[in-house]
Design goal:
The protein is an alpha+beta fold. It has a domain at 2-72 and 102-110. It has two helices and six strands. A hairpin with a 2-residue loop joins strand 1 and strand 2 (11-18).
Length: 117
């Protein structure tokens, strides 16, 4: 579970706890808001402040805003030993795999409505 808060220029858009295992992109639960034309700042915060992203946006016409969350925990000892045995010479690739990756948020802004699948 991950807690996530999203606001656009201090207007709360989303404040929820989301189950993030095996999520597929889905637009059915995306909140829709309408704002007057102008310049705004998008703020997104997840994992109690461990992941934060902020981005400026100019709303001159319709925009689609998507926020992506990613996280990869460190791997366990048996997986580490297996990776070291098979890929031990490539430390630039293997070390991040062993350590995992911290929580990260990315904002995507699109001018056209995405294709619904």
């Amino acid at each position: 579970m991950v807690d996530i808060q999203v606001s656009i220029s201090k207007n709360s858009v989303l404040n929820d706890t989301i189950r993030y295992t095996d999520i597929r992109p889905d637009l059915t639960n995306t909140p829709y808001i309408s704002l007057p034309k102008g310049n705004y700042i998008i703020y997104a915060i997840a994992d109690s402040g461990q992941a934060v992203v902020k981005e400026a946006i100019s709303l001159t016409n319709d925009r689609w805003i998507f926020i992506s969350y990613s996280y990869k925990p460190p791997i366990d000892t048996s997986e580490t030993n297996n990776l070291l045995k098979n890929f031990g010479n490539d430390t630039s690739w293997i070390n991040p795999q062993i350590r995992g990756f911290p929580p990260r948020l990315t904002i995507y802004i699109m001018d056209k409505e995405p294709i619904h699948q």
